[in-house]
Amino acid sequence: MSGGLVIEGLAVTIAGRRVLGGPEGVSLAVGPGEILGLIGESGSGKSMTALAVSRLLPRGAVATGAARLDGRELMALSEREMCGVRGRDIGMIFQEPMTALNPLMPIGDQVAETARVHGGAWRAEAGRLARAALDRVGLGEIPASRFPHELSGGQRQRVGIAMAIALRPKLLIADEPTTALDVTSQARVLDLIRRLVREDGMGCLMITHDLAVVAEMADRLAIMTEGRIVETGPTASVLGAPIHSYTRALIEAATHRPAMPERARGAVLAEGKGLVRDHPAGPRRLLGGRARFHALKGVSFELAEGESLGLVGESGSGKSTLGRAVLGLERLRSGVVRIDGAEIGPHARMAPETRRAVQAVFQDPYGSFDPRHRVARLVAEPFHLVPGAPKGAARRRAVEEALGAVGLAASDAGKYIHEFSGGQRQRIAIARALITRPRLIVLDEAVSAVDARARARILDLLAELAGRFGLSYLFISHDLTVVRAITDRVMVMKAGEIVERGPTEAVLTRPAHPYTRALIAAAPRLETTR
Amino acid sequence: MIRYLATRGLSLALSLLVASLVIFLVLNVVPGDPARYMLGMNARPDTVAALRAELGLDQPAAARYLAWLGGMARGDFGTSYTYRTPVAGMILDRVGVSLPLALYALALSTAIAIPLGLFAAARRGRAADTGVMAATQLGIAVPNFWLAMLLVLVFAVRLRWFAAGGFPGWGAGILAGMKALTLPAIALAAPQAAILARVARAALIETLGEDFIRTARAKGLTGGQALTRHALRNAMIPVLTIIGLQFSFLLAGAIIIENVFFLPGLGRLVFQAISQRDLVVVQSVVMLLVCAVILVTFLVDIAYVLVDPRLRRT
Amino acid sequence: MSRGLVTGGALCALFLGAALLSLVWTPHDVAAIDIAAKLRGPSAAHWLGTDHFGRDLFSMILVGARVSLAVALVAVGIGAGIGVPLGLLAAARRGGVVDELVTRANDLVFAFPSLLIAILITAVFGPSAINAIVAIGIFNIPVFARLTRGAALALWQRDFVLAARVAGKGEVRISVEHILPNLADLLIVQATIQFSLAILAEAALSYVGLGAQPPTPSWGRMLAESQTMIAIAPRLALVPGLAIVLAVLGLNLLGDGLRDLLDPRVRRARA
Q1: Which family is it part of (chain B) (predicted)?
Q2: Other CB atoms closer than 10 Å to residue A470's CB: what's the count?
């Protein structure tokens, strides 16, 4: 193959240590009009491959090997020549639409800049080019004079795409382009990329951690781990008949269904009635206070003993607010949350007995722990709620027991949190939640920030603990696959209201509400290709 | 935008009002009887009584405070007890020296610091950057009044390029006036320029790590183009904050530097007033300086709006 | 450890050593006037020479170090001692009464450069070292309050604080157990910076006669007294000036070095 991008033996070394490529280097090819999905977990080297090809590696990183675009050797170009290639021949899209645009520059100027730095385009002409590019990405209604903060995340990502394709490059590198977006915008942005690739006949290197995202759109897949490509091939054959054990593990993890124990629904454990929560929004007015944003608009729910209840919705739907309300952390405007019949909330007088019955696991495996404390102290923190909590040796035993329950060693109690991986940290968070022997655990996007294989193992752990300790879960997530795997019933939330609820299987296979239907249609699925 | 500025303006006006109250309380209420304080313990009772009448001390404090505010609004700052002349006129003469000096120093400091910060940020981690950083580290540690003395020693005493002090007045021509203010302005500006250059460098380097710089590089901009077209403007926000803060330091610094160069500015006036216990003058000068600082804060707020479209939302 | 940190530490140790030494020993009595021995150059008896009253310059520098150190230490102590708890409280009850008051008071105090506060105080109470301390201290309160509030607000958004709330801990307990320890690095670095600024401010106030009063020597007043003789005896101006520069430089280098040493981003990159 002479056209398109051909990478041969690409390797990256930082301070004498080879961080990408292994002994033989990375080799890949992306033909014109072809979409190659580059799949890997965090730290696998997939983003570094893209940066090496575009010669944007951080200072101190040395790339060796070959990368040819339409027969032209990129690695041999001077920095000035490379500047002529980036933007003109190679367009790039990145993950974070919220920070990828200059906040102080109108979007039209930012798109036009692509044309202007590559010469030949006068101001007016570059402006027309920018307008045309914005129209192509579906922003025809948005004036070019808008600033990034006036646009939604999905719209900002479209501006990023417009910048990348304004000069009709030969190659489009998309690095996790939809990871930060909600499922409905994700589906639309993926459609857009697919359409542009077909229309312009450009090659596309699509980098993602999510097999389901590329399953429907990539022509070929390359699987990467620890800086090396372990398998490449047409999408259908890689997913349908994987050769390498790592690929098989990845596919198994992405479709994993933990064995949730069959349990009878008990009495009502937690309930909310008419919950209303609002925040000040927008600038303070001189008179009459601020406009208010309603995070919860009169939500009611019930959660039974021994039940795993899912709560799904897009960002800003109010699902995390509802989770914090169940934890008694939200100042509600009206409504009441009861645990076992006793009211909880920041102002309610709560018996420690009630308070400790509900514990939580949060999303961020890095921010959930005070970095200055050892694991023993972190895990034991909720003992604050237990009058006459065990001290000394008994306390140590309790911590070790909790760590054992989540599959960690007793010796881990003496370590600091930065010594653990993301998946291990979420296990420690679960151990912390278990230590007061709660009856309900609120899991707020608890597996969203961990890699697929670690996620599958944590879901198994949650299923096992549910049976062993008779736990109930409120499982908050944007990911329908995960919710389907771990919950008995589900509630779908949109703009502060619950629009649909029912048994998980029934809701996800026969959705009644149009919003649920839209969510399900937009969610990328791996099973359909098999 | 209008609402943002109106809110900020209102809040600053409130600060101004509270500041005036604090100044009034400290100088008029804390000393007990200001007239006796100003005249000293050995003053004759009839002199004290005369001054009390002149200052209106038979009135309650609240009425005196309101009268003071009202007077200032009309441009009447009272009469200096020592010089027997209206304070407003005295201050006006002195402002003609102090304000140009502070602005001159601010211009110098900014003109040196921003290019220096850009230069160091563009060469971050290399020898040139290390050199600039070491020089600014030293610059911050030098007290401005000591630098002023050294400048006098070198350029006035040894080289005789400049006069050691004094001010010919603007009547002698703009150039002569500027020349007399040059050494003081350099002494004031150098340490501030060192601080500002460090802030500018740090802000630029932080901005260079942002995602949108990577986007700009992906569009084909060179490192230099990304720095000047995208990073510089984004780094202006912390730089503006520091420039605003520096103005108050420059005003305060000017008060001290005027003493080194024997410049007839507000600083000389206020120190003479303190030694003569002329509270009317002290009160007016301090109020004026606080006013200036708050006004500059407001100007910086306006500059934020001009730089950052996110604040223009109405 | 970086070269800056070592240099800064050494200069600070020198500064501290000079201040402590002056408590027990100085080569000469700093108040002893000996007109016959005036304006002598450096010698075995007077290491740095004598001033226009024949006082020993080296002894005055030692005692001056003590005055600078004492004023700066107490002033920064006042600023941090009041400012940090206020900032913590404001952040813990964001949008509450304390928060509003702290923000307003900050705006107000920032309108008064420390020199203006000193002028106000001196105009009423007369000049003294105590007034310098109070003026610099008052100015430091909002510096620490604002810094603490800003950094604490960011910490309150973190999930580990949420976890502590789930564990039933209250605002004060979380502030003490989780917020303050995580701010400690930042506050230590800021304290060294404020300390160096306080030394500069003390020197400036003494220079214009609003600080320590005779016969207590202070670096700022030594400079003021040397000014009229700068043409004939530049040494009198150079020595105390260099003392100030070295002390401030030492503190700044120490602060920067500590920041690099304690900054988690730098630390992680090094690990």
Answers
A1: Belongs to the binding-protein-dependent transport system permease family.
A2: 13
Find residues 164-223 of chain C whose CB sits inside 8 Å of chain B: 196, 200, 203-204, 207-209, 223
B199-222 pLDDT per residue, tens = 999 999 999 999 999 999 999 999
All domains of chain C in start order, with CATH: 3-26+65-270 (1.10.3720.10)
pLDDT band at A282 (very low <50, low <70, confident <90, very high): low
Concatenate the DSSP letters of all residues of A401-432 into one string. HHHHHTT--GGGGGSBGGGS-HHHHHHHHHHH
Q: Which of B196, B184, B178 is nearest to B150 (CA)?
A: B184
Structure-derived torsion over alpha carbons of residues C30, C34, C37, C39, reported in degrees to the nearest 10: 60
Whole-number Å distance between alpha carbons of A86 and A102 = 18
Q: Which residues, numbered 69 to 108 in chain B, qualify as contacts with chain C under a Cβ-Cβ cut-off of 8 Å? A: none
In chain A, which residue's Cα lies nearest the Cα of C170? A346
Chain B interface includes A91 (CB < 8 A)? yes
Q: Which residues are CB-neighbours of B62 under 8 A, at least 6 positions away?
A: none
CA atoms of A190 and A157, how far apart (whole Å): 11
Helix ranges, A267-391 (H): 319-326, 352-355, 375-380
Domain ranges of chain B: 2-73, 93-313
Fold type of domain A268-280+291-529: Rossmann fold (3.40.50)
Question: Closest partner residue to A372 among C162, C166, C182, by Cβ?
Answer: C182
| Cα A523 versus chain centre, distance | 13
- Binning pLDDT at 50, 70 and 90, where does residue A42 land? confident
The answer to whether C194 and C20 have CB atoms below 8 angstroms apart is no
| Closest residue by Cα to residue A208 from A167, A171, A177, A235 | A177
Per-residue pLDDT for A399 more than 90? yes
| ipTM (interface predicted TM) | 0.87
Distance of residue B185 Cα from the nearest chain C Cα, in angstroms: 17
Q: What is the pLDDT, as a whole number, of residue C1? A: 57
Q: In chain A, pLDDT over 70 holds for what percent of residues?
A: 96
Tokens for C4?
């800056």
Q: Best interface-test mutation with C: which of B145, B153, B260 has the largest number of C CBs within 10 A?
A: B145
Please indicate if any CB of chain C lies within 8 Å of the CB of A118: no
d(CA A5, CA A513): 45
Residues in CB range of B192: below 8 A, 6 or more apart: B105, B106, B109, B113, B246, B249, B250, B253
pLDDT average, residue stretch B62-75: 89
Q: Tens of pLDDT along C8-61?
A: 999 999 999 998 988 888 888 877 777 877 778 888 777 788 887 778 888 899
Asked whether A467 and A446 are in contact (CB, 8 A), the reply is no
CATH of domain B93-313: 1.10.3720.10
Cross-chain residue pair C124–B37, CB shorter than 8 Å: yes
Residues B228/B229/B230/B232 CA torsion (nearest 10 deg): 40
Average pLDDT in chain A: 91
Please say if the pLDDT value at position C265 is more than 60.
Answer: no
pLDDT digits (tens, 9 = 90+) for B86-107: 888 889 889 999 999 999 999 9
Per-domain residue ranges of chain A: 90-168, 268-280+291-529
Average pLDDT over residues A340-347: 84
Query: Which H helix or E strand runs over A62?
Result: strand A61-69
In this structure, what token pair is assigned to residue A68? 């040819």
* Interval A172-180 mean pLDDT: 93
Taking a C-beta distance cutoff of 8 angstroms, is the pair A451, A423 a contact? Answer: yes
A522: its two tokens: 């937009």
Crossing angle between the packed helical segments C3-24 and C235-262, to the nearest 10 degrees: 130
Closest among C156, C131, C141 to C101, alpha carbons compared: C141
pLDDT at position C116: 84
Mean pLDDT score across all residues of chain B = 88
